[in-house]
């Protein structure tokens, strides 16, 4: 089974500039994570503790982002295809950077493979956590009404499966309720 293809004709791109931008953005995210780590320590290590004690976090974040973007675009340029395999290649090299912190080959291969699978699956499934894009030509109200009508069950079927109560009441419920209370407790309940 071939992975998803994004476009028919491939145009090569520069890999270095996006990699540097990505390294800068993820490096800033790493700097934020380092400052959070420094803030949560028990003893006060000062502002420079963000760099001296936890600078490796900043470097790892930056290296992962830059490596991912560089190898993703470089793989696309070499293969002349823009598909999910490029995401997997970029994810593998980026995850390997994270595995280097553990200083073992299984960690390098494991983190690389794990991130490769995650990134390829994310790209293959559409690259969006919000789901597929909605058709702008379809009215949202009509779309939701069609979904409701498609999934709506008859009230009798719901009552048979769940029974009455908890906000689900069938026709004649009040009369049956009055009869039940009269039989069990001997109390006449008036109509409201």
Lay out the secondary structure.
Elements: H1 16-39, H2 49-52, H3 55-79, H4 84-100, H5 105-124, H6 140-151, H7 155-162, H8 173-185
The overall average pLDDT, rounded, is: 84
Q: For this entry, what is the oligomeric state of its chains?
A: single chain
The number of helical elements comes to 8
N-end to C-end Cα span: 65 Å
Q: What is Rg?
A: 29 Å
How do the helices and strands follow one another from N- to C-terminus? HHHHHHHH
Q: What is the number of beta strands?
A: 0
The major β-sheet equals: none
Q: In which range does the helix fraction lie?
A: 55-70%
Structural class: mainly alpha
Query: Which consecutive residue ranges, at least 5 long each, have pLDDT under 50?
Result: none
Written overview of the protein:
Helix 1 packs antiparallel against helix 3 (about 55-80) and helix 3 (about 55-80) packs antiparallel against helix 4 (about 85-100). The protein is mainly α. The protein contains 8 helices and no strands.
Short summary:
This protein has 192 residues and is mainly alpha-helical.
Which tags fit this structure?
mainly alpha; 0% strand; 192 residues
